[in-house]
Design a protein that fits this description.
The complex is a heterodimer of chains A (about 425) and B (about 475).
Chain A lengths: L7 E10 L3 H12 L5 E5 L14 E3 L8 E2 H14 L3 E4 L2 E7 L2 E6 L2 E12 L3 E3 L15 E3 H10 L7 E5 L3 H12 L3 E6 L9 H11 L3 E2 L2 E7 L6 E6 L4 E5 L2 E4 L3 E3 L2 H5 L24 E3 L10 H20 L9 E5 L3 E5 L2 E2 L12 E4 L7 E6 L2 E7 L9 E3 L15 E5 L1
Parallel strand pairs in A: 1-2, 1-8, 2-5, 8-19, 10-17, 11-12, 11-17, 12-13, 20-27
Antiparallel strand pairs in A: 3-4, 6-7, 7-8, 9-18, 14-15, 15-16, 20-22, 21-23, 23-26, 24-25, 24-27
Helix pairs in contact in A: 1-2, 1-7, 3-4, 4-5
Chain B lengths: L7 E8 L3 H10 L6 E4 L16 E2 L10 H20 L3 E2 L3 E5 L2 H16 L6 E3 L1 H7 L9 E5 L3 E3 L1 H14 L3 E3 L4 E6 L5 E5 L2 E10 L5 H7 L7 E11 L10 E4 L9 E4 L5 E4 L3 E2 L10 H14 L8 E12 L5 E5 L4 E5 L5 H18 L29 H6 L6 E3 L4 E2 H8 L8 H8 L12 H13 L1
Parallel strand pairs in B: 1-2, 1-12, 2-9, 5-14, 12-20
Antiparallel strand pairs in B: 3-8, 4-8, 5-7, 6-7, 10-11, 11-12, 13-16, 13-17, 13-18, 15-16, 19-20, 21-22
The chains are: A alpha/beta (about 425), B alpha+beta (about 475).
Amino acid sequence: MTNPAVRVDRSVDVLVIGGGPGGLAIAECLALSGVGVVEVLERESEAGGIPRHSFHTGYGLRDLHRAMTGPAYARRRVHLATAAGAYVRTGFTATGWAGPLTVDVTSPTGLERVTARAVVLATGARERSRAARWVPGDRPSGVFTTGHLQQAVYVRRQAIGRRAVVVGAEHVSYSACVTLAHAGVEVVAMVTDQPAPQSYRAFQAGARMRWRTPVITDVSVSRLVGRGRLEAVELRRSDGATRLLACDTVVFTGDWMPDNELARTGGLTIDPGTLGPSVDGLQRTSRSGIFAVGNLVHPVETADVVALRARRTAAVVLAQLNDPKAALRPCVPVVTDGSLARVWPNIWRPDVRSAEVGRLTVWSRAFVTRPVIVITQADRVIFEHGSRRRLVPNRPTALVGGWSAKAVPDAGPILVSVH
Amino acid sequence: MSAGPTPTEVDVVIVGAGVVGCALARELGRWPWRVALVDAADDVGDGTSKANTALLHTGFDAIPGSLESRLVARGYELLRDYASAAGIPVEPVGALLVAWAQEQLEALPGLAEKAAQNGYAATRLVDVPELYAREPFLGPGALGALEVPDESIICPWTTTLAFATEALAQGVALMLGTELLSIEPRPDGGFLLETSRGRVSSTYLVNAAGLRSDEVDHMAGHHGFTVTPRRGELVVFDKLARAKVSHILLPVPTSRGKGVLVAPTIFGNVMLGPTAEEVGDKRATGSTEAGLADLRRHAARILPALLEEEVTATYAGLRAATEHSDYQVRLHPDQGYVCVGGIRSTGLTASMAIAEHVATLMGDAGWLAGEHRPSEPPSMPNLGEAFPRPFEQAGRIAADPAYGQIVCFCERATRGELRDAFASPIPPVSMEGLRRRTRAGMGRCQGFACGAELAALVEDATRS
């Protein structure tokens, strides 16, 4: 059989775009519920998302109740989705929209135009590159993000370098350190513009003891130096003082950016904080029939949290399929002031009962001990909550449910702030 | 002096495989003589030519009567036609010279007059309502504009490669990775060139060395000019910014240069830049904190919404500015030497006209003999966002599934295109070279998703 030389139109019940933890988890639940054809489009040659290249353990704790390596977790998620009856198509890239619930797809088998009754965006997130962070200087080789580094080390077994600086001190930064150690690269330092590291204390202590890696706080990378190969990074303290740190490798970690191209070209409302599509507590976007899960909407949560939250969204997609005529209620934006970097959910709809939605999740700009979250609408305090959990920059903190009980539809945006 | 292996014998050697050198090689390769194109870099177009603003200029703002004015106007026509024949993407998006101050507004009629003196009569004044209707994201405070409808955007990389590919097909010897060390006169006339890869003996010498054209001029015994690199920093924004700008938005020019512009790129991105800063170092192609801050300030005024978008790449190019305001093209009849220096940012547009002009000078000097051979432009793979690419062509994927296998997701470069690039007459030898031939790796993720795979492909290709 040869491939057709024309575009093929076809239909499915649910189209999930992106085969990472979120997309695979929701596809599994929907397929099990017997909604019909559930199809996952994965552009890579293998599904599973970022865990495929993250070889340390710790995956699967909260969703699968065991500790696994990233690749094992990815394989398990693919297995669960396919065993449930979902079609996981690898090498299939959704390139754009051809209708409200219709996407154009490219694969080696040809071009397709796939129409679904519901579309779930699960396109994930990427780390910002050096350029996206506006870091000036030369353009030498030896400059990585964690995603690039992990594929280079674990999948391709490429030579990396000898002395690395890791930019960032959050969870993924420690993951990069593990990868560099595996590749025989000495980590000269981790550098962060925050006053302290932002990962679990256990990771931080582990890195200190195993590799004696110093964490240089309160500095940003102000320049890359090196023609051909990286020779040094220039660090700038908050008081303006600079110094050079010799290295042949630099890994820019964290600073996640949602892969929001389809969300934007589809005309979905984009949240100014997350830069992903705005979603309510049920992960419904601004357009009827389009849902968003995973780190596209909250860059970034760990894979298990993503999977658990995606599972909960499956019920919402089912409700939509059962009652496709149900119009989306008008939504109220949930916004933050300068005290927080971003908040999830991004919108509130009156039909969302507080009990249904997940806990309010916030991303702080700074370390805050004993935070008090205050939610106001039209200058009226509708919720106040003091937490014992310390807010840590670059790390999502899920606080409490029930925050929207006193919200009303017509009183303007809901403002979340931390004191 | 006769130690070492026998030198490569040619009739003419061109030093510098930038866009001008490659255009010269294509032009001079059409005559029945042996031509060598020499460059220290391991790829064509690897110096100034790879980091320009990628505009196809009408020459409306050149100095009337200058050689540059004439060659840019002629080059525009030649390259537009050649691009269409070779499949080099060109989009005639047009330019708007935006006036932000009263004196700039008052300068617009004078610029229209100057354009007419340069032989370009299609400019038109645009009032404020029309300006904002056509560029709704333009920052507040614009007072009017001069429209230059034929200013276009072009793929600079495909252009250089097309010239070099055609030259190669004509039998031009492409000597890359070959650094010129010294030039000696041959006792019988002509030149003996010492290079990092042996000696080259040639009757004629053409200097198209760009940033180093003054050094080659010195080696040839002349001191016609000094190149002072002028660094231009550029910022490339995400493709999602492309919907926010329709035209090339130019400032009203000042004595310091053309100024900072905002323009769509042929790859579907938006470009901001260049800065203009004289630097002493011919390798100072890094971006600077001050330069990027300056560009941010310009963006905040010209197109504030641009700063909401992600940055895909930053880079800096060095323009080969000299103390002269015009191109420095000179033929030295007694010596058999032609200097093609001082070619600044208009060199991409003018490249074919410069080559034609040099061929005319050489013909007039009696150096060119015989009939030139007919030559066909090569058929280049399309990198332009506005034209069909393999991933969106059902017929091509049906004929060859590799065109449906996307490797670089941001740029939608397919395995088929990567394979074709490695099998092409001038294959890439580095990630950068692969990027310039396929767009792979130049997208928003900068290798987060496919960087390791592309590196493996380059390694495989260069090992064999």
